[in-house]
Amino acid sequence: MSEESKSTVNEMMAGDGAALSMPPAFVFVNPKSHRRYKKSNQDKVDGRTKGAKTMLSRIQSRKKMKEELDTQIVEAAPSETERAQKQIGQMKKLGRSKDLQKKRDEAKKKMQSKTKEMDVLMKARMSDFKKKASDQTKKLKKEETEVTKEIMTESTAQQDALDVALQVATSELNPSGESSFAKITFGDGSQQNLDNFSAKRIAACYAQLPNEHQTQFRYMLNKDAATYQSALDFAVRNV
Fold this sequence. Notes:
Number of strands: 6
Strand content: 5-15%
Order of helices and strands: HEEHEEHHHEEHHH
Shape: rod-shaped
Number of domains: 3
Largest sheet: 2 strands, antiparallel
Protein backbone atom coordinates (compact mmCIF):
# COMPACT_ATOMS: atom_id res chain seq x y z
CA MET A 1 0.00 0.00 0.00
CA SER A 2 1.38 3.37 -0.98
CA GLU A 3 1.99 6.20 1.46
CA GLU A 4 -0.90 8.19 0.01
CA SER A 5 -3.21 5.27 0.45
CA LYS A 6 -2.13 4.77 4.05
CA SER A 7 -2.74 8.44 4.79
CA THR A 8 -6.21 8.27 3.36
CA VAL A 9 -7.04 5.14 5.34
CA ASN A 10 -5.65 6.57 8.57
CA GLU A 11 -7.65 9.81 8.27
CA MET A 12 -11.17 8.40 7.85
CA MET A 13 -12.66 5.73 5.78
CA ALA A 14 -16.32 4.79 5.83
CA GLY A 15 -18.52 3.07 3.37
CA ASP A 16 -19.90 -0.30 2.55
CA GLY A 17 -16.56 -2.02 3.40
CA ALA A 18 -16.21 -3.64 -0.02
CA ALA A 19 -12.71 -2.23 -0.64
CA LEU A 20 -11.22 -3.82 2.45
CA SER A 21 -13.50 -6.80 2.67
CA MET A 22 -14.97 -5.52 5.98
CA PRO A 23 -18.58 -5.08 7.25
CA PRO A 24 -20.42 -2.00 6.04
CA ALA A 25 -20.19 1.34 7.90
CA PHE A 26 -16.97 0.31 9.63
CA VAL A 27 -14.95 3.45 10.22
CA PHE A 28 -11.26 3.92 10.73
CA VAL A 29 -10.60 7.16 12.53
CA ASN A 30 -7.31 8.83 13.08
CA PRO A 31 -7.60 10.75 16.38
CA LYS A 32 -5.63 13.67 15.05
CA SER A 33 -7.68 13.83 11.91
CA HIS A 34 -10.86 13.45 13.98
CA ARG A 35 -9.96 16.45 16.09
CA ARG A 36 -9.17 18.44 13.01
CA TYR A 37 -12.47 17.36 11.47
CA LYS A 38 -14.44 18.40 14.54
CA LYS A 39 -12.64 21.74 14.64
CA SER A 40 -13.51 22.49 11.06
CA ASN A 41 -17.12 21.28 11.48
CA GLN A 42 -18.26 22.97 14.70
CA ASP A 43 -21.90 22.85 13.68
CA LYS A 44 -21.88 19.07 13.92
CA VAL A 45 -21.74 17.15 17.20
CA ASP A 46 -21.49 13.36 17.23
CA GLY A 47 -22.78 13.31 13.72
CA ARG A 48 -25.65 15.75 14.36
CA THR A 49 -25.89 19.48 13.86
CA LYS A 50 -26.45 21.81 16.84
CA GLY A 51 -29.86 22.67 15.45
CA ALA A 52 -30.78 19.00 15.32
CA LYS A 53 -29.55 18.50 18.87
CA THR A 54 -31.54 21.52 20.09
CA MET A 55 -34.66 20.22 18.39
CA LEU A 56 -34.13 16.79 19.93
CA SER A 57 -33.68 18.43 23.33
CA ARG A 58 -36.97 20.29 22.91
CA ILE A 59 -38.71 17.09 21.89
CA GLN A 60 -37.36 15.30 24.94
CA SER A 61 -38.34 18.21 27.20
CA ARG A 62 -41.87 18.24 25.84
CA LYS A 63 -42.09 14.49 26.19
CA LYS A 64 -40.93 14.77 29.80
CA MET A 65 -43.41 17.56 30.51
CA LYS A 66 -46.22 15.51 28.97
CA GLU A 67 -45.30 12.52 31.11
CA GLU A 68 -45.22 14.69 34.25
CA LEU A 69 -48.58 16.25 33.35
CA ASP A 70 -50.11 12.83 32.72
CA THR A 71 -48.78 11.71 36.08
CA GLN A 72 -50.28 14.74 37.81
CA ILE A 73 -53.64 14.17 36.12
CA VAL A 74 -53.60 10.53 37.17
CA GLU A 75 -52.69 11.50 40.72
CA ALA A 76 -55.35 14.25 40.79
CA ALA A 77 -58.10 11.94 39.59
CA PRO A 78 -59.99 10.64 42.64
CA SER A 79 -59.87 6.95 43.27
CA GLU A 80 -62.95 4.86 43.97
CA THR A 81 -62.10 4.85 47.68
CA GLU A 82 -61.89 8.63 47.77
CA ARG A 83 -65.18 8.90 45.93
CA ALA A 84 -66.79 6.50 48.36
CA GLN A 85 -65.41 8.45 51.33
CA LYS A 86 -66.67 11.71 49.86
CA GLN A 87 -70.11 10.18 49.26
CA ILE A 88 -70.22 8.87 52.83
CA GLY A 89 -69.27 12.33 54.13
CA GLN A 90 -72.07 13.92 52.12
CA MET A 91 -74.54 11.31 53.39
CA LYS A 92 -73.52 12.02 56.99
CA LYS A 93 -73.82 15.76 56.44
CA LEU A 94 -77.29 15.31 54.93
CA GLY A 95 -78.27 13.07 57.84
CA ARG A 96 -77.12 15.67 60.38
CA SER A 97 -79.04 18.34 58.50
CA LYS A 98 -82.20 16.21 58.56
CA ASP A 99 -81.77 15.49 62.28
CA LEU A 100 -81.30 19.19 62.99
CA GLN A 101 -84.40 20.09 60.97
CA LYS A 102 -86.36 17.38 62.76
CA LYS A 103 -85.31 18.75 66.15
CA ARG A 104 -86.28 22.26 65.06
CA ASP A 105 -89.71 21.05 63.94
CA GLU A 106 -90.23 19.23 67.24
CA ALA A 107 -89.18 22.32 69.21
CA LYS A 108 -91.54 24.46 67.11
CA LYS A 109 -94.45 22.07 67.74
CA LYS A 110 -93.72 22.05 71.47
CA MET A 111 -93.61 25.86 71.50
CA GLN A 112 -96.92 26.08 69.62
CA SER A 113 -98.50 23.59 72.02
CA LYS A 114 -97.14 25.52 75.01
CA THR A 115 -98.46 28.77 73.54
CA LYS A 116 -101.93 27.27 73.13
CA GLU A 117 -101.85 26.04 76.72
CA MET A 118 -100.84 29.49 77.93
CA ASP A 119 -103.61 31.10 75.88
CA VAL A 120 -106.22 28.77 77.37
CA LEU A 121 -104.87 29.37 80.88
CA MET A 122 -104.77 33.16 80.41
CA LYS A 123 -108.34 33.19 79.09
CA ALA A 124 -109.49 31.22 82.11
CA ARG A 125 -107.63 33.54 84.47
CA MET A 126 -109.02 36.65 82.77
CA SER A 127 -112.52 35.21 83.01
CA ASP A 128 -112.05 34.55 86.73
CA PHE A 129 -110.58 38.02 87.21
CA LYS A 130 -113.45 39.71 85.38
CA LYS A 131 -115.98 37.73 87.38
CA LYS A 132 -114.24 38.60 90.63
CA ALA A 133 -113.97 42.27 89.65
CA SER A 134 -117.64 42.33 88.68
CA ASP A 135 -118.63 40.82 92.02
CA GLN A 136 -116.42 43.31 93.84
CA THR A 137 -117.91 46.22 91.87
CA LYS A 138 -121.44 45.08 92.64
CA LYS A 139 -120.54 44.79 96.30
CA LEU A 140 -119.03 48.29 96.37
CA LYS A 141 -122.04 49.78 94.57
CA LYS A 142 -124.35 48.08 97.01
CA GLU A 143 -122.40 49.42 99.98
CA GLU A 144 -122.27 52.90 98.43
CA THR A 145 -126.02 52.87 97.83
CA GLU A 146 -126.67 51.80 101.40
CA VAL A 147 -124.40 54.55 102.76
CA THR A 148 -126.07 57.13 100.50
CA LYS A 149 -129.51 56.02 101.64
CA GLU A 150 -128.45 56.29 105.27
CA ILE A 151 -127.10 59.80 104.74
CA MET A 152 -130.17 60.88 102.80
CA THR A 153 -132.35 59.42 105.55
CA GLU A 154 -130.43 61.36 108.17
CA SER A 155 -130.86 64.59 106.18
CA THR A 156 -134.60 64.23 105.59
CA ALA A 157 -135.15 66.84 108.29
CA GLN A 158 -133.31 69.34 106.11
CA GLN A 159 -134.32 70.37 102.62
CA ASP A 160 -132.54 68.57 99.75
CA ALA A 161 -129.96 70.82 98.02
CA LEU A 162 -130.91 69.48 94.59
CA ASP A 163 -134.59 70.25 95.20
CA VAL A 164 -133.65 73.78 96.26
CA ALA A 165 -131.55 74.18 93.10
CA LEU A 166 -134.43 72.94 90.91
CA GLN A 167 -136.84 75.34 92.58
CA VAL A 168 -134.49 78.29 92.14
CA ALA A 169 -133.71 77.38 88.53
CA THR A 170 -137.38 77.15 87.54
CA SER A 171 -138.63 80.13 89.55
CA GLU A 172 -139.40 83.49 87.97
CA LEU A 173 -136.57 85.96 88.36
CA ASN A 174 -137.25 88.75 90.79
CA PRO A 175 -136.05 92.28 90.11
CA SER A 176 -132.69 91.47 91.66
CA GLY A 177 -132.27 88.80 88.96
CA GLU A 178 -129.27 86.45 88.96
CA SER A 179 -127.98 87.76 92.26
CA SER A 180 -130.92 86.36 94.27
CA PHE A 181 -129.96 83.75 96.85
CA ALA A 182 -131.49 80.70 98.45
CA LYS A 183 -130.20 79.05 101.58
CA ILE A 184 -128.90 75.44 101.46
CA THR A 185 -128.33 73.56 104.69
CA PHE A 186 -125.86 70.63 104.47
CA GLY A 187 -125.70 67.41 106.43
CA ASP A 188 -123.01 68.77 108.75
CA GLY A 189 -125.23 71.75 109.65
CA SER A 190 -123.35 74.34 107.60
CA GLN A 191 -125.17 76.60 105.12
CA GLN A 192 -124.45 77.97 101.66
CA ASN A 193 -126.08 80.61 99.45
CA LEU A 194 -127.35 79.47 96.03
CA ASP A 195 -127.89 81.95 93.21
CA ASN A 196 -130.00 81.48 90.07
CA PHE A 197 -126.95 80.96 87.78
CA SER A 198 -125.55 78.12 89.92
CA ALA A 199 -128.99 76.55 90.34
CA LYS A 200 -129.49 76.39 86.55
CA ARG A 201 -126.07 74.76 86.05
CA ILE A 202 -126.78 72.19 88.78
CA ALA A 203 -130.20 71.35 87.33
CA ALA A 204 -128.87 71.04 83.76
CA CYS A 205 -125.93 68.88 84.84
CA TYR A 206 -128.14 66.58 86.90
CA ALA A 207 -130.53 66.12 83.98
CA GLN A 208 -127.80 64.93 81.58
CA LEU A 209 -126.10 62.51 83.99
CA PRO A 210 -126.74 58.74 83.75
CA ASN A 211 -129.00 57.27 86.42
CA GLU A 212 -126.13 55.58 88.27
CA HIS A 213 -124.31 58.94 88.62
CA GLN A 214 -127.29 61.07 89.59
CA THR A 215 -127.40 59.57 93.08
CA GLN A 216 -123.72 60.33 93.62
CA PHE A 217 -124.16 63.89 92.33
CA ARG A 218 -127.10 64.47 94.74
CA TYR A 219 -125.03 63.03 97.61
CA MET A 220 -122.15 65.45 96.90
CA LEU A 221 -124.54 68.43 96.87
CA ASN A 222 -125.90 67.56 100.32
CA LYS A 223 -122.82 66.28 102.21
CA ASP A 224 -120.96 69.48 103.08
CA ALA A 225 -119.80 72.79 101.64
CA ALA A 226 -116.60 71.33 100.14
CA THR A 227 -118.28 68.51 98.22
CA TYR A 228 -121.06 70.91 97.18
CA GLN A 229 -118.47 73.26 95.69
CA SER A 230 -116.83 70.35 93.83
CA ALA A 231 -120.18 69.30 92.39
CA LEU A 232 -120.96 72.90 91.41
CA ASP A 233 -117.58 73.29 89.67
CA PHE A 234 -118.20 70.06 87.77
CA ALA A 235 -121.62 71.31 86.67
CA VAL A 236 -120.24 74.68 85.50
CA ARG A 237 -117.47 72.98 83.45
CA ASN A 238 -119.75 70.47 81.74
CA VAL A 239 -122.87 72.53 81.01
